[in-house]
Design brief:
This protein is an alpha/beta fold. The protein is about 50% helix and about 15% strand. It folds into 2 domains: about 220 residues, 3-Layer(aba) Sandwich (Rossmann fold), CATH 3.40.50; about 150 residues, Tetratricopeptide repeat domain (Serine Threonine Protein Phosphatase 5, Tetratricopeptide repeat). The protein has 16 helices and 8 strands.
Length: about 400
């Protein structure tokens, strides 16, 4: 018994070790600008060692504080409908005095180190693509702003939490940028009395003019305070940058129609494809969710639209069960679409003869054939439903018998 326990314990320990994130906390980066060896932390996605895929990189300023926030987002919140797998790089600033607002001794050197030396080091040593996102909280949010508003930004996504700024000179320099669209996410809280005026000022400055090649937003999380906003803003900033990365999700069929219906949905996936190199066709997840929504909200008009437009997903494994064939058949029957109800009930009975659903599907066929005025077929299926109901002590037995009698 003791031997068995030890074996099980070792197995659990092995699995636990296998599940640990791939993190190196002490990687040295030589810097001519800082005349030193700088320390960074690096997280690699779980699939990194399984092929030759290249990954986007999330750079987190003040990595000594917030690096694990980025790792947590990747480990717990990443998914096909949220974010891609990313390399996370923590930029260790703990030895720097720039957090004292009166002593920005290393500001310019740090800025050049991150944009020039560190990004080059990461690209040379890891499989990266061209997608870089940078996050900064408090004073580093001002550095994030400087990274953005210049002629040749080194990043595509910028997340400025609890701070940020821009002046006319920076905006004028940025006007020369003509590359792909950049994304700026600014977050703060009215309770952060130290920095909220800076974020407000940045938003006001950007709102006062049209800025090409920049998508930006400013959000206030007034339940947070100065010290607590970093995680929320990091996650929401990534969601803003990757707003069209995943499947399109709707709260209801009304939202689908209000946003432009099928043409708008097709445009969404085309734009997604152009940005991320994904399939330009509407994906199965979106199609399935819309079919489910229409059924759940009892919207037969939308349901019928989706069932006709998204026929390809109906032949996938998701619907390969008596459960789904019965569900679809019953919904069509409810709205007296007998032809489609017969189609799904028949497929359920013939291809997925699950005893749990055979009785109700035969009864459904009886009702559907009755709508078609094919009385002999209706009676045959009601008789089969009654037979199965008696064998299974089905509480719907009397209802089936009454429907047969009424025929």
């Amino acid at each position: 018994m003791t031997k068995l326990f030890v074996t099980a314990l070792l197995l659990c320990f092995t699995l636990l070790l296998h599940a640990q994130p791939d993190i190196n906390y002490s990687i040295k980066v030589p810097s001519k600008h800082l005349q030193s060896q700088e320390n960074i932390q690096v997280y690699l996605p779980k699939t990194y060692h399984q092929g030759d895929k290249k990954y986007p990189v999330l750079y987190i300023l003040d990595g000594q504080w917030f690096f694990l926030n980025g790792v947590a987002i990747q480990e717990t919140l990443r998914g096909d409908d949220l974010l891609p797998e990313m390399i996370v790089v923590g930029v260790d600033y703990k030895s720097r005095s720039y957090h004292d607002s009166l002593h920005f001794d290393y500001w310019n050197e740090l800025s050049r180190y991150v944009q020039e030396e560190l990004t080059h080091f990461v690209d040379q040593n890891y499989r990266t693509n061209d997608e870089r996102v940078v996050f900064g909280w408090e004073n580093p949010s001002f550095m994030v702003s400087e990274f953005l508003f210049q002629k040749t930004p080194s990043f595509l996504g910028f997340i400025a939490s609890n701070g940020g700024y821009v002046n006319d000179e920076m905006l004028e320099s940025f006007q020369a940028y003509d590359g792909e669209p950049l994304y700026l996410y600014v977050a703060n809280s009215k309770k952060d009395i130290y920095t909220v005026s800076s974020s407000d000022g940045l938003a006001e400055k950007l709102s006062a003019q049209t800025i090409n090649n920049l998508e930006w937003t400013y959000e206030l999380f007034n339940q947070e305070i100065h010290e607590s906003l970093a995680y929320t803003s990091l996650y929401q900033g990534l969601r803003f940058y990757y707003h069209n990365y995943g499947s399109k999700v709707f709260s209801g069929t009304k939202e689908f129609h209000d946003e432009g219906g099928l043409p708008a949905l097709e445009d969404y996936f085309k734009a997604r494809s152009e940005r991320f190199g994904t399939d330009p066709e509407i994906d199965a997840s979106t199609k399935n969710s819309l079919i489910w929504l229409a059924w759940k909200q009892d919207d037969f008009t939308s349901f019928d639209l989706f069932m006709n437009e998204f026929k390809d997903v109906l032949s996938t494994s998701r619907y390969a069960s008596a459960y789904w064939q019965n569900r679809l058949g019953q919904f069509y029957l409810k709205y007296e679409d007998a032809a489609h109800a017969i189609e799904y009930f028949t497929r359920g009975i013939n291809e997925y003869p699950d005893p749990e659903f055979m009785t109700v599907m035969h009864a459904g066929l009886g009702s559907a054939y009755a709508l078609e005025n094919e009385i002999s077929k209706a009676k045959a299926h009601y008789r089969e439903a009654i037979k199965l109901a008696k064998a299974n002590n089905d509480d719907q037995l009397q209802a089936y018998e009454m429907k047969l009698k009424n025929l």
